[in-house]
Amino acid sequence: MTVELDYKENKSFRLLQLYERLIRGEVVRKAELVQKFAVTDKTMQRDIEELRAYLAETRTDAGEASIVYERNRGGYLLSHTASEWLTNEDVLAVCKILLESRAFCKEELDALLKKLLRQTAPQDRAQVGKLIRSEQHYYVPLRHGKKLLSAIWELSQHMTAQHTIRISYCRQDGMERVYEVNPVAIMFAEYYFYLIAYLADGRREFPTIFRIDRIVRFEPTGATFRVTHSRKFSDGEFRQRIQFMYAGELRRITFDYSGASVEAVLDRLPTAKVVSQEDGVYRITVEVYGNGIDMWLRSQGSAVKVVEK
After folding, report:
1. Nearest residue to 231 (alpha-carbon basis) of 267, 209, 204
2. Are the C-beta atoms of 61 and 26 separated by less than 8 Å?
3. Which of 155, 168, 185, 253 could be bridged to 216 by S-S, CB 3.0 to 4.6 A?
């Protein structure tokens, strides 16, 4: 049964629809609203002023919004501070990053892009959509094809609450193993999302890395954990020292680099430092976790010579 709303007698309905249209980025013309709501020009102006007053009272340092009249467009629109709302440029850049990452299945990617495009002004939406249309059409998701957003959020909730969780994990060889872990971070690298966790039995000093798409199921064990200050995990520092998401102990490696772009090396290895340079050969030291760095060193061929590891 459809209920017909009486906008003339119910100011709340009018204010809600007015705000909804403004928040979508529409230009609201008073004459059209007067006709739609069957109210007087004076009543409609009073509604706009009350909504304007409400927005003024609810401003915070995080962001502001106000109703402004644009004469050249003949109507009212919602003006936002740049710090609170995404610009067209922001949306385009984030869409491009999502497409390049290949991190999500097609269904989740399309939903994310659709939501991002809604952040643009209606008159610019078609242009931004056109700029990503070809990449979106030819998007090739990763082979696992799994939806990840819900799992990422649920795992983050257990991490925040410091719940010990039991996970069933499918290894690369197809074998499924069960682990009890204390989750400390969620990261994205090289196409995949990863859960960073310490084994609950404490037999390893360094964290273990699990690809989230390979976690078949997970549940809390009922136990919680505490991280002491000395073992407090910093995902920012960990990211700088992890390569190809291979876990292991912290290592210091020194190598000589004679390739075409030392800048590319320093970008690839955030903790790398040039300690000397002579005749186009750079001596570089780097701190990393695990053995993933060895794969990269070998991939550089004759441009890299390991001095100490």
Report:
1. 204
2. no
3. 168
In this prediction the pTM is 0.69
> What span, in angstroms and rounded, lies between the C-alpha atoms of 13 and 6?
8
Where along the chain do its domains lie?
11-80, 88-137, 149-233, 250-308
Contact partners, residue 41, CB within 8 Å, separation at least 6: 30, 31, 34
Q: What are phi and psi of 276, to 5 degrees?
A: -165, 165
**CATH architecture label of 11-80:** Orthogonal Bundle (1.10)
Q: Does domain 149-233 have CATH number 1.10.357.10?
A: no
Vertex 172 angle, CA 169 and 174, to 5°: 70
pLDDT tens digit sequence for 244-258: 677 778 889 999 999
130 burial via Cβ count (<10 Å: 0-12, 13-18, 19+): exposed
d(CA 70, CA 79): 10
Please give the C-alpha separations between residue 295 and each of 14, 246, 272, in angstroms, as whole numbers.
Answer: 63, 10, 16
The predicted-structure confidence for 167-197, as pLDDT tens digits, reads as follows 999 998 889 999 999 999 999 988 999 999 9
